[in-house]
């Protein structure tokens, strides 16, 4: 039998994190684009803005379209949620009038909070209706293999509708910033994590669940490498954020997509 008290402790910790996310007060475990530029219409057509409803209120997260029914995001964005919806194909969120309803989500079975950080922070959402692809709405590519990501020193892009700095309201137009892949601190090293960013370029509150990706210059197609997970406060004092390494979860992603298709 599972240790029920331990499970309740973990559940309580996650609920606290979700509550903090709703008020924008998270610090080390942050649903944290600081710096960078506005995204042009249709530049990253796979971006999704999620509104997640939890008992304490609602919170904003990011996500990425991976096919005509599924969006990939961070597990902590939807853990304990009552319902969620996704705004896609919108350059300005305030003008996005018809969000897609989410009818089911899958959180990684080994998702947990421990030692002030999140592990296996990945989830897949299924939209109630199929997504019709256009010039403004297209899926992001998934990596081809488990070691398909960047080495330390390489540049990747992170994008989303989060805060530009602590204390502000989320931006209405998505922003992007190029960040450098770096070695994770010893206390946060894990084969399922990727670290990137700096004290002046990073994701911020409201960007959680959004993509860290590379874009092929010739085809203009983007491949998702990471998912915004945790990081220091976005005040300029931090040293970069921590991302869930998508290549590490390719098998899990495919298994969930098959399960989802079998239960539609």
UniProtKB/TrEMBL annotation:
SMART domains: Tryp_SPc. Residues 1-24 form the signal peptide. PANTHER family: TRYPTASE-RELATED. InterPro entries: Peptidase_S1_PA, Peptidase_S1_PA_chymotrypsin, Peptidase_S1A, Ser/Thr_Proteases_Immune/Dev, Trypsin_dom, TRYPSIN_HIS, TRYPSIN_SER. The keyword NAD does not apply. Belongs to the peptidase S1 family. CLIP subfamily. Residues 33-258 form the Peptidase S1 domain. Pfam families: Trypsin. This is Proclotting enzyme. Keywords: Disulfide bond, Hydrolase, Protease, Serine protease, Signal. The keyword Electron transport does not apply. GO terms for molecular function: serine-type endopeptidase activity. It comes from the Eukaryota. The gene is PCE_1. One of its GO terms (biological process) is proteolysis. PROSITE patterns: TRYPSIN_DOM, TRYPSIN_HIS, TRYPSIN_SER.
């Amino acid at each position: 039998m599972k240790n029920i008290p331990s499970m309740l402790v973990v559940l309580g910790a996650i609920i606290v994190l979700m509550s903090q996310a709703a008020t924008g007060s998270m610090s080390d475990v942050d649903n944290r684009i600081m710096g960078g530029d506005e995204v042009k219409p249709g530049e990253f057509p796979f971006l999704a803005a999620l509104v997640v409803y939890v008992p304490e209120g609602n919170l904003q997260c990011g996500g990425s379209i991976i096919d005509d029914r599924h969006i990939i995001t961070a597990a902590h964005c939807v853990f304990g949620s009552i319902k969620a919806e996704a705004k896609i194909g919108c350059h300005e969120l305030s003008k996005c009038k018809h969000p897609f309803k989410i009818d089911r989500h899958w959180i990684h079975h080994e998702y947990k909070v421990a030692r002030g950080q999140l592990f296996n922070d990945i989830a897949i959402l299924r939209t109630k209706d199929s997504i019709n692809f256009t010039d403004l709405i297209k899926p992001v590519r998934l990596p081809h293999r488990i070691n398909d990501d960047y080495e330390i020193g390489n540049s990747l892009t992170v994008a989303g509708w989060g805060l530009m700095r602590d204390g502000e309201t989320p931006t209405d137009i998505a922003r992007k910033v190029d960040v450098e892949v770096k070695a994770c601190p010893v206390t946060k090293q894990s084969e399922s994590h990727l670290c990137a960013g700096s004290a002046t370029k990073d994701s911020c509150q409201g960007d959680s669940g959004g993509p860290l990706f590379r874009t092929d210059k010739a085809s203009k197609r983007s491949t998702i490498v990471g998912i915004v997970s945790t990081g220091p406060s976005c005040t300029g004092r931090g040293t970069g954020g921590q991302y869930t390494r998508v290549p590490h979860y390719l098998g899990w992603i495919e298994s969930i997509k098959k399960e989802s298709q079998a239960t539609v």
